[in-house]
Specification:
heterodimer, A: 260 residues, alpha/beta, 6-stranded mixed beta sheet, 4-stranded antiparallel beta sheet, globular, B: mainly alpha, 20 helices
Chain lengths: 260, 509
């Protein structure tokens, strides 16, 4: 049974708070990033190739250790208590990493076991997810030979089977057909309605425009703009224009600034 | 537009091989030096062993006799079957691997060129392997028996070429008979059986006839010599060629290269169709698992263990390796069974074989469980301590090693409790040694790269082999109650200590 104070903290704290996050490889990838995502929000993190989006999200998911800065997930210090933080999070990579030799249901049993979900509950949820994502007829087949879309659906089901409070998706719609993409988008919106927080990166700006409540634009490792589409458009003096226009303006402005 | 020619593909394949070598050397400057030193030591050791083995055969070039011919033919046949086994696996790999095959097949270039070349490379690699591994034996024969034995080097080349030809032909025949879906599995089983057939057959005959595991006792037996054909028989053509008979050598080389050339020409024509068929089989869905990961409330450790065991059961290339190890366990099992009725003590013979198998099996399993993680992000993002993940994987390795060996240990314990305990203990040590080496050299790789793990770290493979041999020797001595067992056991620990110095530093994220 969870401590009531702990439950309250989980509700009131932001889903994600990044403070002064820094990460360098052979060159700086993320430079002192500050970012806050509210609980129950659908947040899109946009940026050109190499902007530092994936590096940022991999640090949040615990896949990379930042050189400096802090990561707080629902108030939990992810660097000090990574196990507690990871219990709240699901990570879906752009290239679905699943086990070819397991069936979707076995994969879900494995993921549920890792997150410590009760077996009966996990089995029920897994079956529901498999049916919801149209994997029902393939539930008992090994994943080898599955198409990219089917693999992405299996990975998504894995991310949802333990009912995470924060779902992080890196380019989840790349390579999906229209039907699969719609299904994934519907599932994510349904999760946000149910109270989960979703952060996704995408190069398909229409997706961010239609789905995200707030959008963050990251360029060369720094958050250069953040807000609703209307707020971003106002900031660039492009009211009434599409996210694509706003985004390209912001990126071009940054490039000009750096060149100057 | 000029279609790609054979020379175009030769240049292309040559460049790929060369670049891979360059990448390998550049990434491991210290590894190359160590590799050269270790290879030189192994090569020197091989000469030493070869000198002892071939000493009785050295006079064969000047004084032919049936016993020498039988012995040399037997040894040659064992080596040839091993080469054939390796080549069969390589041909199967070319059939089922994707790599750049889609690009080649979708291009207007004649695909037969590229496949002919790849089949020739398999034969060439087999020939290189046979020369490298068996040349010390020929060298020692030349030194001890005279220049007549120089022809032996050419016979080694013929062995490599002919084994390559037979491997290509037999794998494609299997493919035609069984179809693409079953050939990969069956070809591995056949390759494993072929590789061990003569050695195991001779051992079984030795157990039945001579109460021992010495495979040479059959070759030197009176009954074998009486049944052997006369010295002028065509059966002895390869031996006569190796001992310097020019005509025999010409015939052997002509047959080997004629067979290889014609096989490659014929096989490469239809090879593209086979590769396309194999690709269809690989992509077919609908396989049902026979080992499963159940929904369980047993915790992350239990589910990780179950996942590893389920995945180990489904690695296609693991089948041949396990089967080979299990096949080599058959003769000791037979010896054990016979010993029950006769009150003999087979422990000193059986225990080292079982321990050796444990070390080798553990190496493969440990690589798959520890380095071969197909979803590293998933495991890394789970709310589980990294140490627990590692322990669960190690437990899975020990379970996977223990399962096939348990019946033998139980049988051994029924015969002699002490031998059973020694076997169980040293199986644990050998498995722990190989697992520790894999832990030191752990990386993140796809399970499908299992076949290339030896290439990725030859040093760990060599260390694994030496560690298993040392533990096997210690187990054999411990089984007879000798305190000398401490020697090889210490050597095994020294191997671990030395190899730790060369292990790559852990990757910081």
């Amino acid at each position: 049974m969870q401590d009531p104070l702990e439950s309250l903290r989980l509700v009131t704290e932001p889903a994600l708070r990044l403070s002064g996050l820094v990460k360098s490889f052979d060159r700086p990838a993320v430079k002192g990033l500050d970012l806050t995502v509210r609980a129950g929000e659908f947040y899109a993190l946009l940026g050109p190739n190499g902007a530092g989006k994936t590096t940022t999200l991999r640090m949040v998911a615990g896949l990379l250790r930042p050189d400096a800065g802090a990561i707080s997930i629902f108030g939990i210090d992810a660097l000090r208590d990574p196990v507690a933080a990871k219990a709240q999070v699901a990570w879906v990579a752009d290239e679905p990493m699943i086990y070819d030799k397991l069936t979707p249901l076995e994969y879900l049993a494995f993921v549920a076991g890792l997150w410590g979900v009760d077996a009966k509950l996990a089995e029920r949820r897994a079956q529901e997810l498999v049916d919801l994502l149209g994997l029902g007829p393939h539930g008992q087949e090994r994943c080898e030979g599955f198409s990219k879309g089917m693999r992405q659906k299996v990975a998504l089901a894995g991310a949802l089977v333990h009912q995470p409070r924060l779902i992080i998706l890196d380019e989840p719609l790349t390579g999906l057909d229209a039907g699969s993409a719609r299904l994934v988008k519907d599932v994510l919106i349904e999760r946000v309605r149910a109270g989960a927080t979703v952060i996704l990166t995408t190069h398909i700006l229409e997706v961010a425009e239609r789905m995200a409540e707030r959008i963050g634009i990251i360029v060369r490792g720094r958050l250069v703009a953040e807000g609703t589409l209307a707020e971003l458009a106002r900031e660039t003096g492009r009211e009434g224009r599409t996210l694509e226009d706003v985004f390209l303006d912001l990126v071009a402005a940054q490039d000009t600034e750096i060149a100057a | 537009m000029t279609p790609a020619t054979l020379s175009f593909f030769v240049r292309h394949e040559g460049r790929l091989v060369w670049r891979e070598w360059l990448w390998w050397i550049k990434g491991r400057p210290r590894g190359v030096v160590v590799g050269v030193v270790v290879a030189s030591l192994v090569f020197a050791l091989l000469h030493l062993v070869a000198g002892i083995i071939v000493k009785p055969l050295a006079g064969l070039a000047d004084r032919p006799d049936v016993q020498g011919y039988v012995l040399l033919t037997g040894i040659g046949a064992m080596a040839w079957m091993l080469l054939l086994s390796q080549a069969m696996e390589s041909v199967t790999r070319v059939l089922y691997s994707r790599g750049d095959v889609d690009l080649v097949l979708s291009s207007p270039a004649p695909a037969r060129f590229v496949f002919a070349l790849r089949l020739a490379i398999i034969a060439g690699a087999g020939t290189g392997l046979s020369v490298l591994m068996l040349a010390p034996f020929v060298t020692m024969l030349v030194l001890a028996g005279g220049s007549g034995w120089i022809a032996g080097y050419a016979v080694l080349v013929a062995m490599g070429a002919s084994s390559g030809a037979v491997a290509i032909a037999s794998t494609l025949i299997l493919f035609r008979i069984l179809g693409p879906r079953r050939t990969r599995l069956v070809a591995q089983i056949v390759a494993a059986i072929v590789g061990g057939a003569i050695v195991i057959g001779l051992q079984v005959a030795a157990i039945v006839g001579f109460q021992g595991l010495d495979r040479f006792s059959v070759l030197t037996a009176e009954a074998t010599l009486q049944a052997a054909p006369a010295l002028d028989s065509l059966v002895w053509l390869p031996v006569r060629a190796a001992t310097g008979d020019g005509l025999a050598l010409a015939v052997v080389l002509t047959i080997a290269f004629g067979l290889l050339g014609s096989t490659i020409v014929v096989a490469s024509r239809g090879f593209a169709d086979h590769v396309v068929a194999a690709a269809g089989a690989v992509r077919r869905t609908g396989h049902k698992s026979w080992v499963s990961v159940p929904f369980s409330s047993g915790g992350a450790r239990a589910v990780l263990r179950a996942k590893e065991l389920a995945l180990l059961a489904h690695v296609p290339w693991l089948m041949s390796q396990c089967l080979m190890q299990i096949l080599y366990l058959l003769p000791p099992a037979l010896l054990l069974w016979r010993s029950f009725g006769e009150g003999a003590d087979p422990a000193p013979l059986i225990v080292p074989v079982v321990v050796m198998a444990a070390g080798q099996l553990a190496g493969g399993f440990a690589w798959l469980a520890i380095s071969g993680e197909d979803a590293p992000d998933l495991v890394a993002t789970a709310p589980v301590r990294p140490g627990l993940v590692l322990w669960a994987k190690i437990e899975a390795v020990f379970i996977a090693v223990g399962l096939p060996l348990a019946p033998l240990v139980v049988g051994l314990s029924a015969l002699s409790l002490q031998a059973g305990v020694v076997a169980a203990l040293f199986i644990l040590f050998a498995a722990a040694g190989s697992t520790a080496i894999q832990l030191m050299f752990r990386s993140t790789a796809k399970r499908s790269a299992f076949r290339r793990r030896q290439t990725a770290s030859r040093l760990s493979t060599i260390a694994e082999a030496f560690s298993s041999i040392a533990w096997a020797a210690a187990a054999g001595l411990a089984a007879v109650g000798s305190f000398l067992a401490i020697g090889p056991a210490l050597f095994a620990l020294v191997i671990l200590g030395v190899i730790k110095l060369f292990a790559p530093a852990p990757v910081s994220r």
